[in-house]
Design brief:
Shape: globular
Number of helices: 15
Strand order of the largest sheet: 11-10-12-14-15-9-13
Radius of gyration: 28 Å
Oligomer: single chain
Distance between the termini: 76 Å
Strand content: 15-25%
Structural class: alpha+beta
Number of strands: 21
Helix content: 25-40%
Largest sheet: 7 strands, mixed
Protein backbone atom coordinates (compact mmCIF):
# COMPACT_ATOMS: atom_id res chain seq x y z
CA UNK A 1 0.00 0.00 0.00
CA UNK A 2 1.33 3.45 -0.88
CA UNK A 3 0.34 7.02 -1.64
CA UNK A 4 -2.35 7.17 1.07
CA UNK A 5 -4.02 10.55 1.37
CA UNK A 6 -7.16 12.06 2.85
CA UNK A 7 -9.65 14.19 0.93
CA UNK A 8 -12.20 16.35 2.74
CA UNK A 9 -15.80 16.50 1.54
CA UNK A 10 -17.22 19.86 2.66
CA UNK A 11 -20.93 20.49 3.21
CA UNK A 12 -22.69 23.79 3.76
CA UNK A 13 -26.10 25.38 3.34
CA UNK A 14 -28.11 22.24 4.17
CA UNK A 15 -30.90 21.91 6.75
CA UNK A 16 -29.87 22.00 10.41
CA UNK A 17 -32.38 21.04 13.09
CA UNK A 18 -32.98 18.98 16.21
CA UNK A 19 -35.79 16.58 17.07
CA UNK A 20 -36.51 13.62 19.33
CA UNK A 21 -35.15 10.32 18.12
CA UNK A 22 -37.48 8.38 15.86
CA UNK A 23 -38.77 5.11 17.29
CA UNK A 24 -36.42 3.15 15.03
CA UNK A 25 -33.43 5.29 15.98
CA UNK A 26 -34.17 4.85 19.67
CA UNK A 27 -34.25 1.03 19.42
CA UNK A 28 -30.74 0.93 17.97
CA UNK A 29 -29.35 3.87 19.96
CA UNK A 30 -30.22 2.22 23.28
CA UNK A 31 -28.96 -1.16 22.07
CA UNK A 32 -25.62 0.41 21.13
CA UNK A 33 -25.37 2.05 24.56
CA UNK A 34 -25.92 -1.34 26.21
CA UNK A 35 -22.83 -2.81 24.51
CA UNK A 36 -20.49 -2.59 27.48
CA UNK A 37 -18.24 -5.61 26.85
CA UNK A 38 -15.88 -6.47 24.03
CA UNK A 39 -17.74 -9.70 23.21
CA UNK A 40 -21.05 -7.86 22.86
CA UNK A 41 -22.78 -7.75 19.51
CA UNK A 42 -21.18 -5.21 17.14
CA UNK A 43 -23.98 -3.08 15.72
CA UNK A 44 -21.73 -1.19 13.32
CA UNK A 45 -21.69 -2.17 9.65
CA UNK A 46 -18.71 -2.93 7.40
CA UNK A 47 -19.58 -2.83 3.72
CA UNK A 48 -18.03 -2.13 0.35
CA UNK A 49 -19.31 -1.14 -3.08
CA UNK A 50 -17.47 -2.71 -5.99
CA UNK A 51 -16.79 -0.26 -8.83
CA UNK A 52 -16.65 -1.11 -12.54
CA UNK A 53 -13.39 0.71 -13.29
CA UNK A 54 -14.94 3.40 -15.49
CA UNK A 55 -15.09 6.16 -12.86
CA UNK A 56 -12.31 8.53 -11.88
CA UNK A 57 -11.44 9.40 -8.32
CA UNK A 58 -13.07 12.80 -8.85
CA UNK A 59 -16.25 11.09 -10.08
CA UNK A 60 -16.44 8.92 -6.96
CA UNK A 61 -15.81 11.83 -4.59
CA UNK A 62 -18.47 13.94 -6.32
CA UNK A 63 -20.99 11.09 -6.10
CA UNK A 64 -20.19 10.52 -2.42
CA UNK A 65 -20.72 14.22 -1.72
CA UNK A 66 -24.16 14.09 -3.40
CA UNK A 67 -25.17 10.97 -1.51
CA UNK A 68 -24.13 12.29 1.92
CA UNK A 69 -25.82 15.62 1.18
CA UNK A 70 -29.05 13.82 0.27
CA UNK A 71 -29.47 11.69 3.39
CA UNK A 72 -29.59 13.59 6.66
CA UNK A 73 -29.02 10.50 8.80
CA UNK A 74 -25.44 10.47 7.47
CA UNK A 75 -24.92 14.01 8.84
CA UNK A 76 -26.50 13.54 12.26
CA UNK A 77 -25.11 13.47 15.77
CA UNK A 78 -27.06 12.16 18.77
CA UNK A 79 -27.25 14.16 21.97
CA UNK A 80 -27.77 12.20 25.19
CA UNK A 81 -30.65 13.24 27.39
CA UNK A 82 -30.00 15.46 30.39
CA UNK A 83 -31.82 15.19 33.75
CA UNK A 84 -33.98 12.30 32.58
CA UNK A 85 -34.89 13.83 29.22
CA UNK A 86 -34.78 11.48 26.20
CA UNK A 87 -31.90 11.74 23.70
CA UNK A 88 -32.23 13.91 20.60
CA UNK A 89 -31.00 13.82 17.02
CA UNK A 90 -29.18 16.87 15.67
CA UNK A 91 -28.89 17.12 11.88
CA UNK A 92 -25.91 19.22 10.80
CA UNK A 93 -26.28 21.35 7.69
CA UNK A 94 -22.58 21.97 7.40
CA UNK A 95 -19.49 20.01 8.21
CA UNK A 96 -16.67 17.95 6.77
CA UNK A 97 -16.39 14.23 5.97
CA UNK A 98 -12.84 12.88 5.53
CA UNK A 99 -12.37 10.27 2.79
CA UNK A 100 -9.14 8.31 2.98
CA UNK A 101 -7.75 7.23 -0.39
CA UNK A 102 -5.48 4.16 -0.49
CA UNK A 103 -3.88 2.40 -3.44
CA UNK A 104 -3.28 -1.35 -3.55
CA UNK A 105 0.23 -2.55 -4.24
CA UNK A 106 0.76 -4.68 -7.32
CA UNK A 107 -0.09 -8.30 -6.60
CA UNK A 108 -1.95 -7.51 -3.37
CA UNK A 109 -4.99 -9.61 -2.44
CA UNK A 110 -8.08 -7.33 -2.72
CA UNK A 111 -9.99 -9.28 -0.07
CA UNK A 112 -7.14 -9.13 2.42
CA UNK A 113 -6.70 -5.41 1.75
CA UNK A 114 -10.42 -4.82 2.26
CA UNK A 115 -10.37 -6.65 5.60
CA UNK A 116 -7.26 -4.76 6.69
CA UNK A 117 -8.73 -1.37 5.84
CA UNK A 118 -12.09 -2.15 7.42
CA UNK A 119 -10.25 -3.20 10.58
CA UNK A 120 -8.36 0.10 10.60
CA UNK A 121 -11.59 2.04 10.05
CA UNK A 122 -13.17 0.27 13.04
CA UNK A 123 -10.23 0.64 15.44
CA UNK A 124 -12.20 3.18 17.46
CA UNK A 125 -15.93 3.12 17.89
CA UNK A 126 -18.18 5.98 16.85
CA UNK A 127 -18.63 8.85 19.27
CA UNK A 128 -22.10 9.65 17.99
CA UNK A 129 -22.44 12.72 20.17
CA UNK A 130 -19.73 14.42 18.05
CA UNK A 131 -19.17 12.26 14.96
CA UNK A 132 -21.32 11.44 11.95
CA UNK A 133 -22.07 7.72 11.68
CA UNK A 134 -20.13 7.19 8.44
CA UNK A 135 -16.48 6.59 7.62
CA UNK A 136 -15.26 6.16 4.04
CA UNK A 137 -12.15 4.79 2.38
CA UNK A 138 -11.69 4.76 -1.39
CA UNK A 139 -9.53 1.82 -2.43
CA UNK A 140 -7.69 2.27 -5.74
CA UNK A 141 -6.41 -0.50 -7.99
CA UNK A 142 -2.62 -0.69 -8.51
CA UNK A 143 -3.01 1.35 -11.69
CA UNK A 144 -4.85 4.12 -9.81
CA UNK A 145 -8.44 3.49 -10.93
CA UNK A 146 -11.11 3.46 -8.16
CA UNK A 147 -11.72 -0.17 -7.23
CA UNK A 148 -13.94 -0.22 -4.10
CA UNK A 149 -15.70 2.25 -1.82
CA UNK A 150 -15.28 0.93 1.71
CA UNK A 151 -17.91 2.03 4.22
CA UNK A 152 -17.96 1.77 7.99
CA UNK A 153 -21.38 2.84 9.24
CA UNK A 154 -23.17 3.20 12.54
CA UNK A 155 -26.38 1.17 12.78
CA UNK A 156 -27.94 4.26 14.38
CA UNK A 157 -27.50 6.00 11.03
CA UNK A 158 -29.11 3.29 8.90
CA UNK A 159 -30.29 -0.30 8.74
CA UNK A 160 -29.67 -3.09 6.26
CA UNK A 161 -32.46 -2.04 3.93
CA UNK A 162 -31.12 1.51 3.85
CA UNK A 163 -27.68 0.14 2.98
CA UNK A 164 -29.07 -1.17 -0.30
CA UNK A 165 -30.66 2.22 -1.01
CA UNK A 166 -27.36 3.95 -0.32
CA UNK A 167 -25.44 1.62 -2.62
CA UNK A 168 -27.95 1.97 -5.46
CA UNK A 169 -27.95 5.76 -5.19
CA UNK A 170 -24.15 5.82 -5.37
CA UNK A 171 -24.17 3.56 -8.43
CA UNK A 172 -26.87 5.64 -10.13
CA UNK A 173 -24.91 8.85 -9.65
CA UNK A 174 -21.71 7.27 -10.94
CA UNK A 175 -23.56 6.00 -14.00
CA UNK A 176 -25.14 9.40 -14.65
CA UNK A 177 -28.63 8.09 -13.99
CA UNK A 178 -31.12 10.39 -12.27
CA UNK A 179 -31.54 10.01 -8.55
CA UNK A 180 -34.28 7.71 -7.34
CA UNK A 181 -36.44 10.67 -6.35
CA UNK A 182 -37.56 13.19 -9.00
CA UNK A 183 -35.92 16.62 -8.96
CA UNK A 184 -37.56 18.77 -6.33
CA UNK A 185 -39.36 15.90 -4.59
CA UNK A 186 -38.13 15.94 -0.98
CA UNK A 187 -37.06 12.67 0.61
CA UNK A 188 -38.60 11.67 3.90
CA UNK A 189 -35.88 12.21 6.48
CA UNK A 190 -35.69 11.09 10.12
CA UNK A 191 -36.57 14.64 11.22
CA UNK A 192 -39.82 14.38 9.25
CA UNK A 193 -40.60 10.96 10.65
CA UNK A 194 -39.97 12.15 14.21
CA UNK A 195 -42.52 14.93 13.65
CA UNK A 196 -45.06 12.41 12.34
CA UNK A 197 -44.54 10.12 15.32
CA UNK A 198 -45.00 12.97 17.80
CA UNK A 199 -48.22 14.16 16.11
CA UNK A 200 -51.69 13.24 17.34
CA UNK A 201 -51.95 10.69 14.54
CA UNK A 202 -48.65 9.17 15.63
CA UNK A 203 -49.73 9.02 19.26
CA UNK A 204 -53.00 7.33 18.25
CA UNK A 205 -51.04 4.76 16.24
CA UNK A 206 -48.83 4.17 19.26
CA UNK A 207 -51.88 3.55 21.46
CA UNK A 208 -53.36 1.05 18.99
CA UNK A 209 -50.06 -0.76 18.75
CA UNK A 210 -49.74 -0.81 22.53
CA UNK A 211 -53.20 -2.38 22.87
CA UNK A 212 -52.21 -5.09 20.41
CA UNK A 213 -48.92 -5.77 22.20
CA UNK A 214 -50.77 -6.06 25.51
CA UNK A 215 -53.17 -8.59 23.98
CA UNK A 216 -50.25 -10.72 22.81
CA UNK A 217 -48.58 -10.49 26.22
CA UNK A 218 -51.77 -11.57 27.99
CA UNK A 219 -51.56 -14.97 26.27
CA UNK A 220 -47.79 -15.45 26.21
CA UNK A 221 -45.97 -18.11 28.26
CA UNK A 222 -44.07 -16.58 31.16
CA UNK A 223 -40.80 -17.98 29.83
CA UNK A 224 -39.54 -20.35 27.16
CA UNK A 225 -36.95 -21.65 29.64
CA UNK A 226 -38.95 -22.36 32.82
CA UNK A 227 -37.00 -24.89 34.85
CA UNK A 228 -33.83 -24.77 32.74
CA UNK A 229 -30.71 -25.25 34.86
CA UNK A 230 -27.70 -25.60 32.59
CA UNK A 231 -24.14 -24.43 33.06
CA UNK A 232 -23.53 -20.72 32.44
CA UNK A 233 -21.66 -19.84 29.29
CA UNK A 234 -22.29 -19.05 25.64
CA UNK A 235 -22.45 -21.00 22.37
CA UNK A 236 -22.87 -20.03 18.72
CA UNK A 237 -23.73 -22.70 16.17
CA UNK A 238 -24.13 -22.32 12.40
CA UNK A 239 -25.91 -24.72 10.04
CA UNK A 240 -25.85 -24.72 6.24
CA UNK A 241 -28.06 -27.37 4.67
CA UNK A 242 -29.16 -27.86 1.06
CA UNK A 243 -31.92 -30.35 2.04
CA UNK A 244 -33.26 -27.84 4.56
CA UNK A 245 -33.22 -25.03 1.97
CA UNK A 246 -35.07 -27.18 -0.54
CA UNK A 247 -37.65 -28.31 2.02
CA UNK A 248 -38.31 -24.75 3.23
CA UNK A 249 -38.97 -23.60 -0.33
CA UNK A 250 -41.31 -26.49 -0.96
CA UNK A 251 -43.36 -25.78 2.17
CA UNK A 252 -43.37 -22.04 1.45
CA UNK A 253 -44.75 -22.65 -2.05
CA UNK A 254 -47.35 -25.07 -0.73
CA UNK A 255 -48.54 -22.68 2.01
CA UNK A 256 -48.10 -19.51 -0.09
CA UNK A 257 -45.81 -17.86 2.44
CA UNK A 258 -42.15 -16.82 2.56
CA UNK A 259 -39.32 -19.14 3.56
CA UNK A 260 -38.74 -16.74 6.48
CA UNK A 261 -42.17 -17.71 7.84
CA UNK A 262 -41.36 -21.40 7.43
CA UNK A 263 -38.09 -21.05 9.33
CA UNK A 264 -39.78 -19.04 12.09
CA UNK A 265 -42.60 -21.60 12.43
CA UNK A 266 -40.12 -24.48 12.71
CA UNK A 267 -38.03 -22.69 15.30
CA UNK A 268 -41.09 -21.74 17.38
CA UNK A 269 -42.48 -25.29 17.16
CA UNK A 270 -39.31 -26.93 18.44
CA UNK A 271 -38.64 -24.36 21.16
CA UNK A 272 -42.22 -24.74 22.43
CA UNK A 273 -41.88 -28.53 22.28
CA UNK A 274 -38.77 -28.32 24.45
CA UNK A 275 -40.64 -26.05 26.89
CA UNK A 276 -43.69 -28.30 26.98
CA UNK A 277 -46.12 -25.59 25.78
CA UNK A 278 -48.27 -25.11 22.69
CA UNK A 279 -47.27 -21.47 22.23
CA UNK A 280 -43.88 -19.83 21.79
CA UNK A 281 -43.20 -16.30 22.99
CA UNK A 282 -40.54 -14.44 21.05
CA UNK A 283 -39.64 -11.19 19.33
CA UNK A 284 -38.86 -10.88 15.64
CA UNK A 285 -37.31 -7.91 13.85
CA UNK A 286 -39.47 -6.25 11.19
CA UNK A 287 -38.00 -3.89 8.58
CA UNK A 288 -41.01 -1.56 9.07
CA UNK A 289 -40.86 -0.05 5.58
CA UNK A 290 -44.60 0.23 5.14
CA UNK A 291 -45.79 3.04 2.89
CA UNK A 292 -44.28 4.82 -0.09
CA UNK A 293 -42.64 7.52 2.04
CA UNK A 294 -40.50 4.91 3.85
CA UNK A 295 -39.26 2.99 0.83
CA UNK A 296 -36.38 5.35 0.10
CA UNK A 297 -35.49 6.36 3.66
CA UNK A 298 -31.91 6.01 4.84
CA UNK A 299 -32.40 5.52 8.55
CA UNK A 300 -32.99 2.66 10.99
CA UNK A 301 -36.70 1.85 10.86
CA UNK A 302 -36.82 -1.71 12.18
CA UNK A 303 -38.77 -2.58 15.31
CA UNK A 304 -39.32 -5.64 17.47
CA UNK A 305 -42.60 -7.48 16.82
CA UNK A 306 -43.94 -9.59 19.67
CA UNK A 307 -45.27 -12.96 18.55
CA UNK A 308 -46.95 -15.81 20.35
CA UNK A 309 -47.86 -18.33 17.63
CA UNK A 310 -49.93 -21.42 18.35
CA UNK A 311 -47.70 -24.31 17.31
CA UNK A 312 -49.76 -27.38 18.23
CA UNK A 313 -50.62 -28.13 14.60
CA UNK A 314 -51.87 -30.74 14.03
CA UNK A 315 -49.73 -30.72 10.87
CA UNK A 316 -46.72 -28.47 10.37
CA UNK A 317 -48.46 -26.72 7.47
CA UNK A 318 -51.12 -25.61 9.97
CA UNK A 319 -48.40 -24.12 12.17
CA UNK A 320 -46.91 -22.31 9.17
CA UNK A 321 -50.23 -20.75 8.22
CA UNK A 322 -51.01 -19.74 11.82
CA UNK A 323 -47.54 -18.20 12.17
CA UNK A 324 -48.07 -16.30 8.92
CA UNK A 325 -51.29 -14.77 10.24
CA UNK A 326 -49.65 -13.85 13.54
CA UNK A 327 -46.71 -12.15 11.84
CA UNK A 328 -48.99 -10.15 9.53
CA UNK A 329 -50.99 -8.92 12.52
CA UNK A 330 -47.76 -8.07 14.31
CA UNK A 331 -46.38 -6.18 11.31
CA UNK A 332 -49.56 -4.11 11.13
CA UNK A 333 -48.92 -2.95 14.72
CA UNK A 334 -45.13 -2.68 14.56
CA UNK A 335 -44.98 1.13 14.69
CA UNK A 336 -44.81 2.03 18.37
CA UNK A 337 -42.64 3.92 20.82
CA UNK A 338 -40.10 1.41 22.19
CA UNK A 339 -39.91 3.43 25.41
CA UNK A 340 -43.39 2.08 26.24
CA UNK A 341 -42.54 -1.60 25.77
CA UNK A 342 -41.03 -2.27 29.20
CA UNK A 343 -44.09 -0.73 30.86
CA UNK A 344 -46.44 -2.90 28.78
CA UNK A 345 -44.49 -6.03 29.69
CA UNK A 346 -44.47 -5.13 33.39
CA UNK A 347 -48.20 -4.33 33.44
CA UNK A 348 -49.13 -7.56 31.65
CA UNK A 349 -46.95 -9.56 34.00
CA UNK A 350 -48.33 -7.90 37.11
CA UNK A 351 -51.90 -8.59 35.99
CA UNK A 352 -51.10 -12.29 35.68
CA UNK A 353 -48.78 -12.54 38.66
CA UNK A 354 -45.79 -13.26 36.43
CA UNK A 355 -42.42 -11.87 35.46
CA UNK A 356 -42.63 -12.17 31.69
CA UNK A 357 -39.36 -13.25 30.13
CA UNK A 358 -39.18 -12.17 26.48
CA UNK A 359 -35.57 -13.18 25.90
CA UNK A 360 -35.84 -14.97 22.54
CA UNK A 361 -35.12 -12.94 19.40
CA UNK A 362 -35.48 -13.96 15.74
CA UNK A 363 -34.05 -12.01 12.82
CA UNK A 364 -34.28 -13.05 9.16
CA UNK A 365 -32.13 -10.98 6.80
CA UNK A 366 -32.27 -13.22 3.71
CA UNK A 367 -34.12 -10.62 1.68
CA UNK A 368 -31.27 -8.13 2.03
CA UNK A 369 -29.33 -10.03 -0.62
CA UNK A 370 -32.02 -12.29 -2.02
CA UNK A 371 -32.51 -15.97 -1.33
CA UNK A 372 -29.72 -18.29 -2.44
CA UNK A 373 -30.06 -19.10 -6.13
CA UNK A 374 -31.97 -22.35 -5.91
CA UNK A 375 -35.29 -22.85 -7.67
CA UNK A 376 -38.33 -23.97 -5.73
CA UNK A 377 -38.93 -27.69 -5.97
CA UNK A 378 -42.09 -29.76 -5.73
CA UNK A 379 -42.39 -32.20 -2.80
CA UNK A 380 -41.45 -35.06 -5.11
CA UNK A 381 -38.38 -33.24 -6.39
CA UNK A 382 -37.42 -32.33 -2.83
CA UNK A 383 -37.46 -35.98 -1.78
CA UNK A 384 -35.43 -37.06 -4.80
CA UNK A 385 -32.96 -34.23 -4.33
CA UNK A 386 -32.55 -34.84 -0.59
CA UNK A 387 -31.62 -38.46 -1.29
CA UNK A 388 -28.94 -37.30 -3.75
CA UNK A 389 -27.43 -34.63 -1.49
CA UNK A 390 -23.89 -35.45 -0.40
CA UNK A 391 -22.22 -34.62 2.89
CA UNK A 392 -20.77 -31.51 1.27
CA UNK A 393 -24.29 -30.07 1.01
CA UNK A 394 -24.74 -29.95 4.78
CA UNK A 395 -22.38 -28.57 7.38
CA UNK A 396 -22.48 -27.52 11.01
CA UNK A 397 -19.79 -25.43 12.67
CA UNK A 398 -19.15 -23.50 15.87
CA UNK A 399 -18.47 -19.78 15.69
CA UNK A 400 -17.29 -17.28 18.33
CA UNK A 401 -20.26 -16.41 20.55
CA UNK A 402 -21.36 -12.87 21.22
CA UNK A 403 -23.69 -11.25 23.73
CA UNK A 404 -26.90 -9.39 22.97
CA UNK A 405 -28.44 -7.45 25.87
CA UNK A 406 -31.25 -9.15 27.80
CA UNK A 407 -31.33 -12.18 25.47
CA UNK A 408 -31.02 -15.86 26.25
CA UNK A 409 -31.46 -17.08 22.66
CA UNK A 410 -30.88 -15.39 19.30
CA UNK A 411 -31.83 -17.11 16.03
CA UNK A 412 -30.62 -15.44 12.85
CA UNK A 413 -31.17 -16.52 9.24
CA UNK A 414 -29.18 -14.93 6.44
CA UNK A 415 -28.20 -15.48 2.83
CA UNK A 416 -24.55 -14.74 2.26
CA UNK A 417 -23.99 -12.95 -1.07
CA UNK A 418 -21.17 -15.29 -2.11
CA UNK A 419 -22.66 -18.55 -0.85
CA UNK A 420 -25.29 -20.93 -2.23
CA UNK A 421 -26.75 -21.79 1.18
CA UNK A 422 -28.94 -20.13 3.75
CA UNK A 423 -27.05 -19.79 7.03
CA UNK A 424 -28.92 -20.54 10.26
CA UNK A 425 -27.19 -19.14 13.35
CA UNK A 426 -28.19 -19.88 16.92
CA UNK A 427 -26.52 -18.00 19.77
CA UNK A 428 -27.44 -19.13 23.28
CA UNK A 429 -26.81 -18.54 26.94
CA UNK A 430 -25.97 -22.14 27.83
CA UNK A 431 -27.57 -21.82 31.26
CA UNK A 432 -30.87 -21.98 29.37
CA UNK A 433 -30.01 -23.88 26.18
CA UNK A 434 -26.96 -26.15 26.59
CA UNK A 435 -24.30 -26.29 23.91
CA UNK A 436 -25.40 -29.74 22.69
CA UNK A 437 -28.96 -28.47 22.33
CA UNK A 438 -27.80 -25.50 20.23
CA UNK A 439 -26.55 -27.96 17.64
CA UNK A 440 -29.49 -30.30 18.23
CA UNK A 441 -32.13 -27.63 17.75
CA UNK A 442 -30.69 -26.58 14.39
CA UNK A 443 -30.51 -30.20 13.21
CA UNK A 444 -34.04 -30.79 14.52
CA UNK A 445 -35.23 -27.92 12.32
CA UNK A 446 -33.71 -29.70 9.34
CA UNK A 447 -35.49 -32.92 10.35
CA UNK A 448 -38.84 -31.19 10.86
CA UNK A 449 -38.70 -29.34 7.53
CA UNK A 450 -37.51 -32.23 5.39
CA UNK A 451 -40.06 -34.63 6.90
CA UNK A 452 -42.86 -32.08 6.50
CA UNK A 453 -41.88 -31.39 2.89
CA UNK A 454 -42.04 -35.12 2.09
CA UNK A 455 -45.25 -35.81 4.02
CA UNK A 456 -47.65 -32.84 3.88
CA UNK A 457 -50.63 -33.06 6.18
CA UNK A 458 -49.20 -35.74 8.46
CA UNK A 459 -49.80 -34.76 12.10
CA UNK A 460 -46.58 -33.82 13.85
CA UNK A 461 -47.49 -36.03 16.80
CA UNK A 462 -47.60 -39.03 14.44
CA UNK A 463 -44.13 -38.44 13.03
CA UNK A 464 -41.23 -40.53 14.37
CA UNK A 465 -39.65 -39.01 17.45
CA UNK A 466 -36.24 -38.52 15.87
CA UNK A 467 -35.49 -35.18 17.48
CA UNK A 468 -32.22 -34.60 19.29
CA UNK A 469 -33.52 -32.01 21.76
CA UNK A 470 -35.81 -33.49 24.41
CA UNK A 471 -38.46 -31.63 26.41
CA UNK A 472 -37.23 -30.20 29.69
CA UNK A 473 -37.43 -32.68 32.53
CA UNK A 474 -39.46 -31.30 35.42
CA UNK A 475 -40.46 -32.90 38.72
CA UNK A 476 -43.94 -33.57 40.04
CA UNK A 477 -44.08 -30.13 41.65
CA UNK A 478 -44.31 -28.40 38.26
CA UNK A 479 -47.71 -27.37 36.91
CA UNK A 480 -48.69 -25.89 33.53
CA UNK A 481 -51.24 -23.17 34.18
CA UNK A 482 -52.31 -20.20 32.05
CA UNK A 483 -49.83 -21.32 29.33
CA UNK A 484 -46.92 -20.97 31.80
CA UNK A 485 -45.02 -23.44 33.92
CA UNK A 486 -44.95 -22.87 37.67
CA UNK A 487 -42.77 -24.57 40.26
CA UNK A 488 -45.18 -25.31 43.11
CA UNK A 489 -42.32 -26.21 45.44
CA UNK A 490 -40.71 -22.82 44.87
CA UNK A 491 -44.08 -21.16 45.40
CA UNK A 492 -44.50 -22.89 48.79
CA UNK A 493 -41.00 -21.87 49.84
CA UNK A 494 -41.69 -18.31 48.72
CA UNK A 495 -44.87 -18.16 50.81
CA UNK A 496 -43.17 -19.63 53.86
CA UNK A 497 -40.39 -17.07 53.53
CA UNK A 498 -42.77 -14.14 53.90
CA UNK A 499 -42.69 -12.27 57.21
CA UNK A 500 -46.48 -12.39 57.89
CA UNK A 501 -46.81 -16.14 57.10
CA UNK A 502 -46.45 -18.95 59.67
CA UNK A 503 -47.61 -21.82 57.46
CA UNK A 504 -48.78 -22.37 53.89
CA UNK A 505 -49.94 -25.01 51.45
CA UNK A 506 -51.02 -24.95 47.81
CA UNK A 507 -54.27 -26.55 46.69
CA UNK A 508 -54.75 -27.38 43.00
CA UNK A 509 -58.12 -27.97 41.37
CA UNK A 510 -59.53 -27.38 37.88
CA UNK A 511 -62.25 -25.15 36.55
CA UNK A 512 -65.12 -26.31 34.36
CA UNK A 513 -62.85 -26.15 31.31
CA UNK A 514 -60.22 -28.35 32.90
CA UNK A 515 -57.77 -25.48 33.45
CA UNK A 516 -55.80 -25.86 36.71
CA UNK A 517 -56.28 -23.25 39.40
CA UNK A 518 -53.99 -22.79 42.38
CA UNK A 519 -55.20 -21.67 45.81
CA UNK A 520 -52.74 -20.63 48.52
CA UNK A 521 -53.93 -21.52 52.03
CA UNK A 522 -51.98 -19.34 54.47
CA UNK A 523 -51.72 -19.49 58.24
CA UNK A 524 -50.59 -16.03 59.38
CA UNK A 525 -48.10 -15.19 62.06
CA UNK A 526 -49.89 -14.26 65.29
CA UNK A 527 -49.83 -10.59 66.25
CA UNK A 528 -48.25 -10.51 69.67
CA UNK A 529 -49.58 -7.05 70.41
CA UNK A 530 -53.16 -8.05 69.78
CA UNK A 531 -53.35 -5.82 66.71
CA UNK A 532 -55.46 -6.41 63.65
CA UNK A 533 -55.15 -9.77 61.87
CA UNK A 534 -53.00 -10.29 58.78
CA UNK A 535 -55.00 -9.59 55.64
CA UNK A 536 -55.08 -11.20 52.22
CA UNK A 537 -53.80 -7.92 50.76
CA UNK A 538 -50.70 -7.99 52.96
CA UNK A 539 -49.90 -11.56 51.97
CA UNK A 540 -50.43 -10.84 48.30
CA UNK A 541 -48.28 -7.68 48.33
CA UNK A 542 -45.46 -9.44 50.16
CA UNK A 543 -45.62 -12.33 47.69
CA UNK A 544 -45.62 -10.01 44.66
CA UNK A 545 -42.51 -8.29 46.03
CA UNK A 546 -40.80 -11.69 46.26
CA UNK A 547 -41.44 -12.31 42.54
CA UNK A 548 -38.71 -9.85 41.60
CA UNK A 549 -35.98 -12.20 42.89
CA UNK A 550 -37.52 -15.69 42.58
CA UNK A 551 -37.49 -17.54 39.25
CA UNK A 552 -40.29 -19.87 38.13
CA UNK A 553 -42.73 -18.49 40.70
CA UNK A 554 -46.20 -17.21 39.83
CA UNK A 555 -49.09 -15.81 41.83
CA UNK A 556 -51.79 -18.20 43.00
CA UNK A 557 -55.22 -17.68 41.48
CA UNK A 558 -56.85 -17.54 44.94
CA UNK A 559 -55.82 -16.97 48.57
CA UNK A 560 -57.28 -18.27 51.81
CA UNK A 561 -56.00 -16.70 55.03
CA UNK A 562 -56.84 -18.82 58.06
CA UNK A 563 -57.74 -17.07 61.30
CA UNK A 564 -58.68 -18.51 64.67
CA UNK A 565 -62.39 -17.70 64.31
CA UNK A 566 -62.92 -17.61 60.55
CA UNK A 567 -61.21 -17.62 57.16
CA UNK A 568 -61.02 -14.93 54.48
CA UNK A 569 -60.82 -15.91 50.81
CA UNK A 570 -59.99 -13.75 47.83
CA UNK A 571 -59.76 -14.14 44.07
Amino acid sequence: MSDAQTFQLDFTGLRSAQAPLTWGQRVIYEAVLSRTEAHGYDYNIKYFVELDGTSTTEDVLAALRQVVAGYESLRTVYLPGVDGAPPRQSVQGEGRLPVRIDRMAAGADPEAETVRLHTRMAESGFDLSHEWGIRVTLLLAPGGAPFRVLLYLSHVALDGWALRILEQDLRDRLAGRPAADPAGAPRTQPLDLAEQEQSERGRAMNRRSGAYVRKVLDGAPRSMFAGASGDPGAAHGELRSAPMDAAARTIALRCQVSTATVHLAAFATLLARRNGTTRCALKTIFANRVGADRQGMVAPLASDVLLCPEVSGPAFDDVVRATHKDTLRGYARAQYDPADLDGLIAAAGAARGLRLDLSVLHNDTTLLFGDPAQRTRTPEETEDTAERESADDRSFSWAPPFALPALKLYYNVSAEPDGPRTVHRLVADTAYLPRDDVRGLLLDMETLLTESARSPGVPMAASPDGYLVRPLARGDDWLLTDSSWADLGAMRRALLGLEPVAGAELLVDRDTGGVPRVTARVVPQPRGDGGRPVTVGEVRRAYEAALSVLPDVVLPHYYIVERPQFRVASH
